[in-house]
Amino acid sequence: MILTDQASAVIAKSQEIFASSPAILESINLIEQRLEGPLRVAIAGKVKAGKSTLMNALVGERLAATDVGECTKVVTWYLDGHTYQVMLNPKDGSAPVQARFHRDEGALDIDLGGRPSTEIDRIEVTWPSKTLRQLTLIDTPGIDSLTESIGTRAFEFLDPEDRATPADAVLYLMRHIHGSDLRLLEAFHDDSMAEPNPVNTVAVLSRADEIGAGRLDSMASSRRIAKRLGADRRLKRLVQVIVPVAGLLAETAASLTEWEYKALRELASVPPKSLEPHLLSADRFISASPEIPLTSLEREELLGRFGLFGIRLSLAMLRRNVVESSAELAAELGVRSGVSELLDLLTTLFVERTDVLKARSALLAIETICTDNSQIVGSQDLLLSIEETLAGAHPFAELRTIAELRSDQIAGSDEDVADLERTLGSSGTMSSTRLGIDDSASASDIRDAAITQLGRWQRLIENPFTSQDLATAARVAVRSLEGILAVGQ
Q1: What is the reported pTM?
Q2: What is the C-alpha to C-alpha distance for residues 357 and 200, in angstroms, rounded to an integer?
Q3: Helix (H) or strand (E) holding 381
């Protein structure tokens, strides 16, 4: 039985047990709907980390406001749908209210109808989007906000006291490793699977273009920093990977206009020696001498959309004829901003594991309900059933083992640990990815590689000098490889 079927069976049983409790039954029905919907990915981070900007880049359209203030004061859900709609969900549990909205320079300006933001539990934005068909994105208020009630909302959402977290996975934006970053990530992982599990969390080194002061090598510098941060033991046990992204450039790439392309073309016609001094700072660029094309207002608009790094990068590509149209420029900026790599990672690490992550969330949510209502007949038996599923299902054993490997609970050579993580699916669940071979490998090549690696881990298990923990991890890997071989038969 596949995991989603097991989770569905648990949900059905819980509906029988709590049939006489309408409030609990309503919560269970919502869990059932969650299991059938897209994977829920929360975007979290400090105030002004660039969460809304990245959200826009992932959706491919400028929806979330990204001005200089704290734009996200209410948890905002972005869902796919056939119509454009905004619904307000009050904290008092009353019926959702449809809100008026209009677009201000692309971003949504939502009319709360006179309601204070503190009285709204969440905002739901329905918008037709290819990305949102696979992932429901949830934009959360920044932590460490100057307003305490806003600053705690991300914690309350990812680690609620009275229920399981509504998110299946987290995309966490950071610049450095701060205590508040670690606390929020630990809160999200505080569940019954005992140890923090990095598989459902990806970290983003946000505003990566600013790390190198907007120089053309800024992204290369940010990749080195991301690699160093990713090796930190405190972070390694909480996130699967950390990837640098220039969020502003990614957002602009998704919504590049023809005017912007022509304006950059005009700037690119100026000899570099004449233009470079004006690209040393934002002030110099905006107040450039009259012989530089465009008005100061137009240059300011370009700066707000591209940043100095984006302008420098665009000009370099235009001068070298790397791109010859607005579409080509948008595509190149998307790749060089890091958002294309991030989208690939989300597909590999989240979308490919959708069933496992959603089943895990559903089981943990039902477990919470059973624990809180243990006096009701049947809840204890259901708790036992959930524990058996979480302990016995192989995909969950993979998740636990990956977490143990990444938190250094299992001693082994760097090569063995890295290969075990990959085999268990830490870099993706495709057979070729698990085996570390090319994606175009034939069925025969996959089978040969699986047999070779199966023998390797079996020999390690049989070696009397192998520690018990490492042997246990290797047995999980053997089971994963046997699964690959079984599929190929």
Answers
A1: 0.80
A2: 7
A3: helix 379-392
